[in-house]
Amino acid sequence: MDTSKRAKILIQAMPYIKKYSGETIVVKYGGNAMINEDLKAAVMSDIVLMQLVGINVVLVHGGGPEINAMLKAVGKESKFENGMRVTDKETIDIVQMVLAGKVNKSLVQLLESHGGKALGLCGLDGKLLMAEKLVASADLGYVGEIKEVNAEPLENAMKNGYIPIVATVAGGYDGNVYNINADLAAAQIAAKIGAKKLILMTDIRGLLRDVNDEESLISVVNVSEVPMLKRDGIIKGGMIPKIDCCVEAVRSGVNRAHIIDGRIEHSILLELFSDEGIGTMFY
């Protein structure tokens, strides 16, 4: 790339850097971007850069593949109902161990190796996430529904220059530990802390008018259009809970919510600091 093109990129980014400096952005990290080593490195460098230009970042993560691998290692089958993990007593112990332990701390170490300051947390720390058992058509076991978010641990971390990295297990009022959907947790955290944006990283380009055509991306959606898009069958299957999270976040005061393609290197920076952006934006 010649120097004039580099200069144009920096000039294009400047108003966005100014716009978001001092604001808080919640990133839900998952999918292929959490497995592929090159993509992992790109995400961590993106987040460090965001912090360097004055953006407060909260990183919320899942860890489905790692949980599946550990369950398989102990000879236990992974079971799902309507996209939710059936979580019995043995499984919730493994979920807590893998998410709040191995995955969370490896992300802390990775981010710090890219020059950031990270603090690993889970929903149990400082009563960050409090939940009740999720009531669904099938008994999902120790799967929770968030009832309270305590922003204080996150705000204290950011105030002291740390990027909070949050594993989505929650404490129950009944003394149990609950597995929480990471998209839902990210949406509720974003709403509670008054985030400017919520960014959900996925393995598709965003909301597609035709799932078989990646060029049919719908770039911008008003949340009032979502019921119609569901009726038309454009929002269906696994996209429903993700988009419901975006809608909930926007209706709870988050300025914008985005579903972006985590398979693209530096997708977060492309969304934040370019005129075109990528993925689907909900407002």
Helices and strands, with pairings:
Elements: H1 3-20, E1 24-29, H2 37-52, E2 56-61, H3 64-73, E3 80-81, E4 84-85, H4 89-113, E5 118-123, E6 129-133, E7 144-149, H5 152-159, E8 163-172, E9 177-179, H6 182-192, E10 197-202, E11 220-221, H7 226-231, H8 239-251, E12 256-261, H9 267-273, E13 280-282
Parallel strand pairs: 1-2, 1-10, 2-8, 5-8, 6-8, 10-12, 11-13
Antiparallel strand pairs: 3-4, 6-7, 8-9, 12-13
Helix pairs in contact: 3-4, 6-8
Shape: globular
The strand count comes to: 13
Structural class, from helix and strand content?
alpha/beta
Q: Uncertain spans, ≥5 residues at pLDDT below 50? A: none
* Helicity level: 40-55%
Could you characterize the architecture of this molecule?
This protein is α/β, with parallel strands linked by helices and 283 residues long. It has one domain: Carbamate kinase (3-Layer(aba) Sandwich). Helix content is 40%, strand content 22%. It has nine helices and 13 strands. It has helices at 3-20, 37-52, 64-73, 89-113, 152-159, 182-192, 226-231, 239-251, 267-273, and strands at residues 24-29, 56-61, 80-81, 84-85, 118-123, 129-133, 144-149, 163-172, 177-179, 197-202, 220-221, 256-261, 280-282. The strands form two sheets. Strands 1, 2, 5, 6, 7, 8, 9, 10, 11, 12 and 13 form an eleven-stranded mixed β-sheet that branches. A two-stranded antiparallel sheet has the order 3-4. Strand 1, helix 2 (37-52) and strand 2 (56-61) form a beta-alpha-beta unit. Helix 6 runs parallel beside helix 8. The protein starts with a helix and ends with a strand. The model has no long low-confidence stretch (mean pLDDT 90).
